[in-house]
Specification:
Largest sheet: 6 strands, mixed
Strand order of the largest sheet: 3-18-11-10-9-5
Distance between the termini: 58 Å
Strand content: 25-35%
Number of strands: 34
Helix content: 10-25%
Structural class: alpha+beta
Shape: globular
Number of helices: 7
Length: about 450
């Protein structure tokens, strides 16, 4: 009871701070748990409870920091609430359960091994897995999803082989990580609401499948994950281990798209959707956040080239990066460009709403969807036009969708190769890719 009371006071304090900063409304930070209302840290709350893929192994983006001057207390003078004494198997098991971390294994986070500067890490409030990830998720047919999702609501669409799954942001804003498997591949489907970063990883390193959780810490306002096999810390935005024995290890990124529920249904009528388990997930705990000029718990000043929470479609090679503002993509409908000497094409599809605007996601403002592809099919280079919301190629007049699939015409059934890219908030993209080029049309 003492532990619960202490956590409750911590969470309540942080939620009050968040409210005073104008980031989250008081009504958005409470929810029923076991018949009682509980307050959530930083507005988060949760009861514990056929196209080819494109993958990439990006180069390490952080400079190696080397050993800390004091490995026993690397956070001296730094605002990280859950310090090294917590990050042992014995103590973590008390937070997450012995089925996740074996308490007698002797595991502990190796804080002497890290990249970057510990002073860049801040406490988000919750303890490890205080925002519980979804383990062993269950899925339902599209008809069940239609019972609670409206057509415009955003989902992460993941398709590999004959399987296609939709992960609604309404659920992932409350859990942030789903440890799943698709087409025999173990994956982590992740979403950081503070950065609007939806990223999918293969959760296997050196032949071992990892289970990821929420550390409770942030860097550049972005979720820091942890794994249950080495207790290393991972940057969600990049998929790189930044603290622990696996520091410098890069998870394999899997191509996925952030689209409206209606677009997933049209593309994958036999697909499945992450189950709501009978709970009401349509509310947004981050009311007005994507209009905030100053991101929550973000150190420094956002890059002034674009508004902090402008959505951009970003592409990164390990060396170079380019950001395409969604406002520009929406205006043009189709963008033809080159990246590192290779032609790319960007498609826009209207209809998707923000998950981080109004209290009810279904009532939020429209932001649309965008995706990037290589504009070539069977060795033939294609060019594209956009008119009245319809994308067609100029060579055959075939019609294409936001998944890069020809849905009508001579090329119907053909698939453009995805180029790994992500729609995220500008401030976060620029913080992790400061040398990025901004496309200005």
């Amino acid at each position: 009871m003492k532990y619960v009371t202490w956590i409750g006071s911590v969470i309540l304090t942080l939620s009050i701070i968040a409210t005073q900063c104008g980031v989250i409304s008081p009504s958005a930070v409470s929810e029923e748990k076991n018949g009682q209302m509980v307050q959530a840290s930083a507005g988060k709350v949760e009861p514990s409870a056929e196209n080819p893929i494109d993958t990439v192994k990006a180069e390490t983006t952080l400079e190696t920091g080397g050993p800390s001057t004091d490995c026993t207390d690397p956070f001296a003078g730094i605002n990280v609430r859950f310090t090294p004494d917590v990050w042992t198997a014995e103590n973590l098991a008390r937070y997450v359960g012995a089925e996740i971390v074996e308490p007698t294994s002797g595991l502990k986070t190796n804080f002497c091994q890290h990249s970057g500067d510990y002073s860049d890490i801040l406490s988000g409030g919750p303890p490890p897995d205080g925002i519980p990830p979804i383990d062993n998720p269950t899925f339902e047919p599209i008809a069940k999803g239609d019972e609670w999702l409206v057509d415009a609501q955003p989902v992460i669409a993941l398709a590999i082989g004959d399987e296609a799954k939709a992960y609604p942001l309404a659920i992932l804003t409350r859990h942030e990580i789903a440890n799943d498997e698709i087409a025999g591949m173990p994956v982590a489907v992740t979403f950081c609401p503070l950065c609007n970063a939806a990223v999918v990883f293969k959760r296997e390193v050196n032949g071992e499948v990892l289970r990821f959780g929420v550390s409770g810490n942030l860097r550049n306002s972005d979720l820091i994950m942890w794994d249950n096999k080495t207790l290393s810390w991972w940057q969600q935005f990049t998929g790189e281990a930044i603290v622990g024995d696996l520091t410098g290890t890069q998870l394999e990124l899997i191509s996925a798209q952030l689209v409206a529920w209606k677009d997933f249904k049209a593309a994958y009528p036999n697909g499945t959707v992450l189950s709501s388990s009978g709970r009401r997930y349509g509310q947004n705990p981050y009311v007005g956040y994507d209009s905030s000029p100053q991101p929550f718990l973000f150190l420094g000043v956002p890059d002034p080239r674009l508004p902090a929470t402008e959505r951009v479609l970003g592409v990164f090679s390990g060396k170079n990066a380019t950001a395409y503002p969604l406002s520009v993509i929406a205006e043009k409908g189709v963008i033809e460009d080159t990246f590192e000497g290779q032609k790319i094409i960007i498609f826009y599809e209207p209809g998707q709403v923000s998950a981080l605007d109004q209290g009810e996601i279904a009532e939020s403002k429209e932001v649309g969807s965008a995706a990037m592809f290589s504009p070539e099919v069977d060795g033939q280079a294609l060019t594209f036009s956009y008119k009245d919301g319809v994308i067609t190629d100029n060579e055959t007049g075939s019609e294409w969708d936001v998944f890069g699939r020809a849905i009508k015409g001579e090329l119907a059934g053909k698939q453009l190769q995805p180029v790994l890219s992500h729609v995220q908030f500008w401030f976060a993209w620029a913080a992790f890719r400061p040398d990025t080029t901004v496309y200005d049309g």
